[in-house]
Amino acid sequence: MRVDAALNDRRLARVAALGAAFALVVVAASALLRLGTVLDAGGNPSSLLAPALQSAARLAHRVCASAVGLAALAAVLLAVRARPVPCARRAPLAAAVLCTLMLAAIGPYTPGYRHVGVTVANAVLGIALAASLAALAAQASRPGSRASLATRLALLAVLIEAALGTAGSAAAMHGRLAFEPLHVALGPVVGAIVVVAALRGGRWIAGLALAQMGLGIVLAAMGASRGLPGQWLHAMLAALLAVALASDRRPFRSRADAAGRGMSDDADTRKRSPR
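RE: above sequence
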């Protein structure tokens, strides 16, 4: 039974990690298509991308979106084979299922970028799905691990900041300068939250946060002259940061275990001390 459980965990980790990678491709293609689109006075979209690049992005989006759905379904089936499902696995599993269902529900309303709220939901849910699958993969590869409260708060802050950034660019497509000032103002705050959360071990995550924050400051200073590559890279760094935070899971030790280990250490100290 132990071998079967370990084998199932390894399969779950591989499937969930593959799903997270596919989800990141979908997020990347979606961001490229969105940032490369402008709306005319009548609200009709037109792309600024080269036709070949636009076609490749759309193809990657369609193929990888289907692959994410299959990977999420396979991950759910593998996860529920372990009964009861480990507590640390339930939250990312439920989040992956919820994000998949919500993305499927809003899918028919996303073309044309007619609704800012739908555009924001599509972008943030895509990042959240990638993060959920990454968290599921990390937990399956390291059973007994879980994310700290600081890491969870940092992940929530990154998702909120990504929502504000998407809302700002989506509103700008409709000629409204909303959300952008708040997005710029909260950038350093979110960066500081992530850096503090990563101090206990994930220092490369702190570097990723600083890079994303620094690029955001540069883009804000450039104003209307900022180009598509920089904006796309800024959006992708946010998605990678969310996935990195979701994967940052550490061995969990209950208070009872900690107390037991403390008593054992005290006993060993008394044995070694001279009488």
